Inverse folding.
């Protein structure tokens, strides 16, 4: 069975994933200086994935609204 083209997304996965592959986890650990070269790639520590959030809108004060 095929997927209707209206349901397909051209950009693939847009949202952030909460599970990383082993290579991605090792790359994050290297950035955080938590990876040793002689360390086993099995049994890696957990890596926190930060979610991108949109900034909240600030409310205008009465003075700014009057301008």
């Amino acid at each position: 069975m095929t997927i209707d083209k209206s349901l397909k997304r051209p950009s693939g996965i847009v949202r952030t994933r909460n599970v990383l592959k082993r290579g991605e986890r090792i790359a994050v650990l290297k950035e955080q200086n938590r990876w040793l070269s002689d360390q086993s790639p099995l049994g890696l520590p957990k890596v926190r994935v930060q979610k991108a959030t949109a900034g909240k809108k600030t409310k205008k004060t009465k003075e700014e609204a009057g301008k």
Observations:
- Residues 15 and 52 are 9 Å apart (CA to CA).
- Residues 16-49 form one domain.
- The two ends are 59 Å apart (CA to CA).
